[in-house]
Design a protein that fits this description.
Elements: H1 2-20, E1 30-37, H2 45-69, E2 72-80, E3 83-92, E4 101-107, E5 113-120, H3 121-128
Antiparallel strand pairs: 1-5, 2-3, 4-5
């Protein structure tokens, strides 16, 4: 009987200590980017403003996705007479952004828009693994 009590006194705290670490959530590891967008000068002013703001948001999303997944780069060069004639570089990234937060949106004095976005990289690491 005493052996069972001693076993329970040792076993229960040990098991509880193992599971107590599972419930903790790590502090957010914020990754913040700034996206920039400019509209075409031929667009009417109200439309240009909206297009620039949307372009800035898309630029910030692209930067977050590049940090999370990496970028596929494809390039080729043509050299003629020891000089570069053509240089072709293309980058591509695909994915879905979830839980990104817009921190700030501002209009610059030049008419461009900037959007600050952030995402918790701990969540990204959990998804990518």
């Amino acid at each position: 009987m005493k052996a069972r009590v001693i076993l329970w006194m040792i076993l229960v705290p040990t098991v509880l200590s193992l599971f107590s670490g599972c419930a903790t959530t790590p502090a957010p590891d914020w990754y913040t980017v700034t996206g920039s967008g400019v509209a075409r000068p031929t667009d009417p002013l109200p439309q240009a403003d909206l297009m620039a703001r949307q372009a800035a948001r898309r630029d910030a999303q692209r930067q977050i996705l590049e940090a999370a997944k990496g970028v596929h780069i494809k390039s080729s060069s043509t050299v003629e007479d020891f000089m570069t004639r053509d240089d072709y570089i293309r980058s591509r990234v695909e994915g879905i952004i979830r839980d990104a937060q817009i921190v700030d949106t501002r209009n610059t004095s030049e008419g461009a828009w900037e959007v600050d976005m952030r995402i918790d990289m701990n969540r990204i690491r959990d998804i990518v693994r």
